[in-house]
Design a protein that fits this description.
alpha/beta; 2 domains; NAPRTase_N (chains A, B); six-stranded parallel β-sheet; about 425 residues; TIM Barrel; pyridine nucleotide biosynthesis (chains A, B); seven-stranded antiparallel β-sheet; homodimer; nicotinate phosphoribosyltransferase
């Protein structure tokens, strides 16, 4: 709403064409985390490229005057967008995205840009911590049912970006090429009853194996786990792909189930655990014989931080730096670019931000520098060499290694890096 | 994924046509809240009615065998759905929604039903607490930018259902008829500079008033609030509609601004406050001269509970009650309906659940009973007299009044009502 009322007022008073720069950044990391993960950049680029108003939409906005309506009918973003790569780390005040153009064309993008980056980055930031906690063990994203039906698709994409191996969300596979994986529900076991209406777990396992092959993962905790494991191996044989435990004390149960599987000769049968796992629960299972994690609710809701808290602020008007002075919400004016300075070992030391129009500052030559800000949209068109989802996933994995070691800890603390402003 | 692999296995082993009942309920309320609000029901009904698989979607699922593909090509839900009205209160184990049909037609609806109800109910449950905390003062929903771009539209709808007066999300207005409202951003003020590039707040206010009328709400905290209020009244006169404060200690500032407005003669100018308001912040401002609240992040993220934690469980197969015995996840078998028992004063005492196929149990006649479970879909078709969004909104407002008075408190405690099962 206010994007359009501001647009209308700006078209009326002649300020609509002022050359502006808006910046996406955050003032702090949620829950005293040490880093955030930029996610959603590719979705933002698509959304900006396709940002249009239909006649039907405009008909539903009777408060628009004729001039504003005409402007929106012909709307097409023609400006420049620069920013951090998708999969890049960020910290408080990192200039994640800079949108430059007329006030009119930039102001109407606030909500769509922030919605995408705030949601996707919240999920990716939580997912990256889970991946770190899992220490190389695969995590499957299975949280679609715990978030909005469309957000679920984006969540699956963001979790994969952050290092999850697959998702149970088929739409994410169709739309973004995320690998899919899945097991079965308790309903599948409950569905199978014998002629007298009594539970028949073996019939459920048998049917699943016949349909999905012996490499499938059987859910063994619908009734009694010990009996469930016995039934699973009896039906599948020792070549069974995996068993899933979705309740109880997962550490204790994983050990018991591992012992039982080994005693039965099912040495290669994997153990998958799920049940409201977050990064802390995953970390607490490090020493247990768990092969695969299934994460749901926590990852799609950002594990306690369901929004990244990114804001979209006007930082420059006709070449003049601007910033508000609201208490607790002060910010740095000027359109910026950033680099990360690293030791020769590759360990990051700090981020440095400076004017987007100037050459990189001289940091004395002791440190290596990596340019963080790259062109994303030029004159309204996405640049040619945008990273693929898999490239962004690899980029993040490499960046996490560059953090000072304490930056990967799960506990609350200061951000791992700070941002220094030069000449702003 | 697992919905379709279970379907495929069920079509293969002959269990696909078993008559099943799945139930949506929650085992607990998040954050020890005292009630939840059912939201999203109308969206679920639409989603079920329109649930289809396109040829393109099926082409992307190479793991499907021919029989399963054919089944999905012709998919159309033909069963029964009963449940609580949208805007109804719920408690742990309330049978919010019951889906009956073949295993095949019910199992594939799990994710879409849960995604909608979990997200919408999370937002509505948080929003209802904010409305209670505001004690009749209007709250505007302005959180679109802090959640997924599609979820934002549903969040605006759910917040309105819960008693918010309007939203800044225009798509929610177009799609669901939610009233819209909006103010302006700090960018609007920052955009306005004089010929020397110096801040010119008065120019911003003047342009907004010329475009939007004197009834508009001016954002006064971009630079200095005291000067901002003075500028606002100087430009608009004492007929100014409102001022918004979006930073700082809102209680102290509201008092100072009220005094200043009154001293300037702007007695009727309203004060709107925003800035990460949740139900506790809203309650803490009860005694301050605040006229309107703007709530964003907290409402769209469920104020600490971004998902309602609802599950979709198989409870009946061919007339036999089923339930799993997983530790901590036990549930009650059988397709259910529910009523709420109330004293003659209207105060609710408990919920009672019994078989969906039987007459209401005799509770002794001392209490009045209200049927909670109503038909929503019959033979695949939505029933004729579904409630409108405004009717659901009114329904919720009436139900909140029926809670025992301690049930509306914001602090952590037991659920306000419990559910008693009879004959199950």
């Amino acid at each position: 709403m206010y994007e359009l009322t501001m647009l209308q007022a700006a078209l009326a008073d002649g300020t609509a064409d002022r050359r502006c720069a808006f910046e996406v950044f955050t003032r702090r990391l949620p829950n005293e985390r040490r880093y955030g993960v930029v996610a959603g950049t590719a979705r933002v680029i698509d959304a900006v490229k396709n940002f249009r108003f239909t006649a039907e939409q405009l008909d539903g906005l009777p408060f628009l005057d004729g001039r504003t309506r005409t402007y929106l009918e012909n709307y097409r973003f023609s400006g420049q967008i620069d920013g951090y790569r998708e999969g890049e780390l960020y910290f408080p005040n990192s200039p994640i995205l800079t949108v430059r153009g007329t006030f009119a064309e930039c102001v109407v993008l606030e909500t769509v840009i922030l919605s995408i980056l705030n949601f996707d980055s919240a999920v990716a930031s939580a997912a990256a911590r889970m991946v770190t906690a899992a220490e190389g063990r695969p995590i499957i994203e299975m949280g679609s049912r715990r978030t909005h039906e469309d957000a679920a698709v984006s969540a699956a994409r963001a979790a994969y970006l952050a290092g999850f191996v697959s998702t149970s969300n088929l739409e994410a596979a169709a739309r973004y090429g995320v690998p899919v994986g899945g097991t079965s529900a308790h309903a599948w076991t409950l569905l199978h009853t014998d002629a007298d209406g009594r539970p028949d777990e073996k019939a459920a396992f048998k049917a699943q194996i016949e349909s999905q092959g012996v490499g499938t993962t059987l859910l063994v905790d619908t009734y009694d786990i010990r009996q469930g494991v016995a039934n699973a191996v009896e039906v599948a044989g020792t070549g069974l792909g995996g068993v899933r435990i979705d309740s109880g004390d997962l550490g204790v149960l994983a050990r018991q189930v591992r012992d039982q599987l080994d005693a039965l000769g099912a040495y290669d049968t994997k153990i998958c655990v799920s049940s409201d796992l977050d990064e802390f629960a995953i970390a607490s299972l490090r020493s247990e014989p768990v092969d695969t994690y299934g994460a749901g609710t926590s990852v799609v809701t950002g594990s306690g931080a369901p929004t990244a808290g990114l804001v979209y602020k006007l930082v420059e008007v006709d070449g003049t730096h601007v910033h508000k002075r609201s208490r607790g919400k002060a910010s740095h004016g000027g359109a910026k670019q950033a680099l990360r300075a690293c030791r020769s070992t590759g360990t990051a030391v700090e981020e440095v931000a400076w004017s987007i129009d100037e050459d990189a500052p001289d940091l004395g030559g002791v440190l290596n520098t990596v340019q963080l800000t790259v062109p994303l949209i030029r004159d309204g068109e996405p640049v040619d060499d945008l990273a693929s989802l898999d490239e962004s996933r690899d980029h993040l994995a490499a960046q996490l290694v560059s953090l000072p070691w304490e930056g990967l800890a799960l506990s609350r603390d200061e951000p791992a890096l700070s941002v220094r402003f030069i000449g702003l």
